[in-house]
Amino acid sequence: MRILRPTARAARLLAGSSVLPALAAFAMSSIALADQPFLLPDSLVISSSTYDRNQGAVVSLTIGTTLPDTATATTTAVANNDYVNVWNNASVDGSFGVTSPIRLTDVEPSSGRIFGAIDVPTDQVVTSFSSKSELGLHIASDWQGNHLTFVGYAGAGVGALDVSNSDAVAGQDPTNPVTFAFGSGYAFHRTIVSTDALGRFSYTPTVDYGGNNGRSALLGSNGLYYAVGNANNGNATTFGPNGTDPDVTETTGLEVVEPIDGWSIDVPIPANDSAEVDPLLQYPLGKNGALDKAGKDNNYRGVTEFAGALYFTKGSGSNGMDTVYTVNTLPTVANAASTAISVVPGFPTDSARATGGDFTPFAVFFANATTMYVTDEGTGASVDASEHAGLEKWTLVSGTWQLDYVLTKGLIGAVDSDLYGYDGQYPDVTTIGLRNLTGVVNRDGTVTLWATTSTSSASGDNGADPNRVVRITDQLSATTMTDEVSAETFSTIAGPTYGTVYRGVAYVCSAAHGPAQACRAGVDFGRGDGGRR
Fold this sequence. Notes:
By secondary structure, the protein is mainly beta. It has 5 helices and 33 strands.
């Protein structure tokens, strides 16, 4: 374990900085402390990752290096390993990515001033740069205190190529292009990671999400893990048997996972340790009304628990419906298959294929039982970009959720330029929406929310763009775009920083709260001076 504390010279997350790496001054001037507290009450935890081309296979990546292409052929790299251009390899390798280290930073939620940070052991788990949907964060409490959970790749190390599309189990899918290029043993367990206030890590490896990525995981109020993600990078088009083992079409979507919580990733995975919820879900929204591709209608990303139910989103891919889903109970491994997933009443039920995605929801936060905030990534059709991108507010009226307004001021269209670092200038980056989300209800009748931004640029992969962590405070009782609401403006507390991406955010509650309650602030982030008081 290594917990870092910043010196006075590096007490912020470099909001607005374009130097490399993120938290660079912080990292260089930090000292290791044995038991520096982490997950401080009323703080904000941010997950981030910085591209590193000095370790692993990426060190030798040059134009002409062999990369995956299809189940029976390889291709060659069109760019070397520099941060600005390496993502152009995605144009020839649809699985392209580079593993990178995970950092968890605990900050003061208004200013971004750093309280401390933890570098997650890279010999255990890493993330994939530039997989934009990874590293969602969740905090839960039990008799042992707070626990922060997320998902990573076990045993890949920093600088490995195309891990986010590798198999989860060796030999799982012989039609996976990554397997063809790198061998059947090139497989990495998607692993749920938990850390406590002392920075102690525990690991629950799974057999799930082979061929794609686990995006987010939470510890449910019943003591089980719930994870969301996508699977299948090969040719399986029907539910099993389909030549994959474990079946990539039924180890995806919303998964129930029995905690293992081993002290290392080498802990054995018991048989039947996880199960997919509603695994045969399939909508007749394909071409000419045909059923969608098996295992792709549940390409989920954000997930949260509220009032004993789970809520999760789909906002990408051409299959199914891009919308907010729910199960009205907390499934177990035993009953996961018989638990039905449904669209939250009032949310879209149109075909993502037909519309191109009028909504691209990412994450959900409940302020109370009748107020839900949903981030929209802004990566869908023109309707999505013009009407839904940003932070949506929904209220429950007579059993149906309705969209009240979308908060965008100071967010959509903001351009970051002069992003210059050791590999030259990165293309200008434009904010187009939001991804992961957290929030807290203030004592003055407002709610403050934090989110990571989604972006567009001329880069070969926008998931590699330097992005931001932003915050906004909204009048909780408002249901229309009043003058007061229209004046609400996003501000930045972290980023953009050359070579670094911000992925997840989680607010640390100061007091325990039930599953039907939102976190309430122990300090006030409401209106007035906009900070703690």
